[in-house]
Amino acid sequence: MTGTEVMPVDIDRELRALAQRHRAARGVGIQVLNLVGSQAENLLERLPDQAKQRLEEATTRALEVAMRAASQSRGVVPDQKGWLNTAMATAMGAMGGAGGLPTALAELPVTTTVLLRAIQGIAAEYGFDPGDPEVQKHCLTVFASAGPLADDDGADLGFLSARVTLTGATVHGIIARVAPRLATVLGQKLATQTVPLIGAAAGAATNYAYTSYYQQMAHVHFGLLHLSDRSGRTHAALIDEFRQTVTARN
Fold first, then answer.
1. What does the domain layout of the chain look like in residue ranges?
2. Nearest CA to 122 among 111, 130, 114?
3. How many CB atoms lie within 10 A of CB 235?
4. Which residue has better confidence, 123 or 249?
5. What is the mean pLDDT of the chain?
6. How many CB atoms lie under 10 A from the CB of residue 105?
7. What is the pLDDT of residue 1?
8. Helix (H), strand (E), coil (C) string for 36-56
């Protein structure tokens, strides 16, 4: 990856900082749940059957389009600050939610592109080359951390190890593995945007939550990889220590 020279680092301090980011990521979904209230239950059931059946296919296409667009845009548009990525996605969510399901579906690949580009920017912050196919696969695996509305609280830790061991797999193969989980997450987002009367507000809130979440999880993901490079500790060992740090402070 970076080949950074091993140097003395305060591993415990850095793991605690990453654990704090992890907790912040898990907390952003509460804003959305508070917004939609009781209507947040069984969100996926709000979607038409046809939309639910085609959601995974739409998610796969959105990831493929996002990967191409995010990578190609790097030579034209510089990486943005995290707050600006969040602001852009929030505005798009409001526009997507204003027209109900049709506009929410149209907004899906655009938001996915913004999210992926933000993840690539964070990878670059830690010294990784977003143009490297291995780094691109790592960027995609961040999406395997589910999302702030996900029911599986363990999913955001499982992606750190299980999804990254797919060495030798193509980017398309990674997309195929990530898409089913992301489809469920984005299905919840789409359903939230169809809440009567508050679709635009719900769209803005969900995009704010998702952008904040995935940026924090990207910091956790690439922060651990970078810490492994600098400390000489194996990535697997650091993941185990990170899990213990998160569990100890929950």
1. 30-249
2. 130
3. 17
4. 123
5. 78
6. 19
7. 52
8. HHHHHCCHHHHCCHHHHHHHH
How far is 195 from 231, CA to CA, in rounded Å? 48
209 φ, ψ to 5°?
-65, -45
Of 115, 112, 113, 121, residue with least CA distance to 78: 121
**Cα-only R_g, the chain:** 18
Q: How far is CA 120 from CA 67, 72, 79, 132, 215, in A?
A: 10, 12, 8, 11, 10
pLDDT, tens only, 124-182: 999 999 888 888 888 988 988 877 766 666 667 777 765 455 555 677 888 888 888 88
CA distances from 79 to 109, 120, 125, 156, 187 (A): 19, 8, 10, 25, 28
User: Two tokens at 183?
Assistant: 């489809």
**């939309």: which residue's tokens?**
51
pLDDT over 50 at 4, yes or no: no
How is residue 35 written in tokens? Answer: 């917004």
Indicate the pTM of the whole model. 0.80
